[in-house]
Amino acid sequence: MLRNWEIRKFYIKKGLFYSGLFFLIIAMSQPQWGKKEKILSNTGIDIALCFDVSKSMLAKDLKPNRLSNVRASLNLLVDQLVGNRLALVAFAGTSFVECPLTSDINAVKLFLDSINCDLIQAPGTDIGGAIDTSAQALGKSRNSKAIILITDGEDLYGKARAAAKEAKNKGIRIYPIGIGTNMGEPVPEIDGNGNEIGVKRDEKGEIVISRLDSVLLNWIAKETGGKAFFVGDKGSTLPELMMAIALLPKQGIKNSITTRYNDQFQIFLFLSIVCFAVEFVLSTRRKGNA
User: Fold this and answer.
1) Tens digits of per-residue pLDDT, 14-68?
2) Alpha carbon separation from 171 to 55, 77, 164, 216, 224 (Å, rounded)
3) What are phi and psi of 180, to 5 degrees?
4) How many angstroms separate the Cα of 243 from the Cα of each of 47, 77, 92, 273, 275?
5) Lowest pLDDT segment from 177-181, 252-256, 271-275
6) For residue 285, is it left (φ>0), alpha (ψ between -120 and 50) or beta?
7) CA distance 154 to 151
8) How far apart are CA 261 and CA 110, in angstroms?
């Protein structure tokens, strides 16, 4: 009987240990379920985050590349824009609304995390079309409106200045965030599996270099009453951008909905502690009886 109990206790301890480890791993993944929606009436502005996803955003003059560098900063920016309504627009050779105007910050961040250079197959960078799409996403409300234009500034279609003037006529200010360097960097060539296989070349076989067009971005900002910012090695542009946004007049935004998901890791952490505690007690008893 004693031997049978020792064998059973051995397997019970193993089960408790692995169960505790399993629950601990789940707790560390910070599971969330059960959302809370809260209706708010506050003041804010309508902002379109207009994100360049052309292949030039894979250039590595900013590490690890332009796209990854600025996406991390934008997640922090979105956190600072709680209380405003946000839309997300992606563009390359064409543009589309990735996330319509909403006050649900979690939804915006979810779409932002999915931004990549495979979203749009049309090559090139149509900044003018992106500004037009962003203006449409902002709608016709009387709220203050702004476009945060994240791009390297290479306007391959030549429509950016006309689109900026039209945005100005609609009362929209544009705040470009220039990504890249004036020296430029070769654009990587990516295969169908997402692997870098060299550098992109034009029809003449020459390496395609992507350079920041700070002149155009400064012009767009000045024309619309905004301000241009440039991401480099000197630090974050977020504080300066937030100060500029804060100066815009704010109107009441009714029926704003914010969604928060409940953290549930405590449940699995508790179960993990219980399993390890019982396993420890069984081990202690065995040593005490020895």
Assistant:
1) 888 888 889 989 988 888 877 776 665 567 899 999 999 998 999 988 888 888 8
2) 31, 23, 11, 20, 8
3) 120, -170
4) 14, 12, 29, 46, 51
5) 252-256
6) alpha
7) 8
8) 13
Residue with tokens 């915006």: 108
State the sign of the Cα–Cα–Cα–Cα dihedral 220, 225, 231, 233. Answer: positive
**CA atoms of 186 and 279, how far apart (whole Å):** 58
Which residue shows structure tokens 């995390």? 113
Q: Is the pTM of this model over 0.90?
A: no
Pair 140, 215: CB distance under 8 Å: no
Q: Where are the domains of the chain?
A: 2-31+264-289, 37-256
- SS3 state of residue 196: strand
Name the amino acid, one letter, at 83: G
Give the residue from 49, 55, 56, 22 showing the smallest Cα distance to 241: 49
Tell me: cis bond preceding 64? Omega within 30 of 0 counts: yes
Q: Which residues of 256-285 are buried (b: 16+ CB within 10 A; e: fewer)?
A: bebeeeeeebeebeebbeebbebbeeeeee
Q: Map 55-113 to HEC letters.
A: HHHHCCCCCCCHHHHHHHHHHHHHHHCCCCEEEEEEECCCEEEEEEEECCHHHHHHHHH
Q: Does residue 145 register a pLDDT over 50?
A: yes
* Max avg pLDDT among 44-48, 72-76, 78-82: 44-48
Residue 9 is predicted with a pLDDT of 76
Contact 18, 272 (CB under 8 A): no
Q: Could you give the 3-state DSSP secondary structure of residue 251?
A: strand
- Rounded to 5 degrees, what angle do the CA atoms 68, 72, 78 make? 135
Architecture of the domain delimited by 37-256: 3-Layer(aba) Sandwich (3.40)
Dist CA 128 CA 177 (whole Å): 15
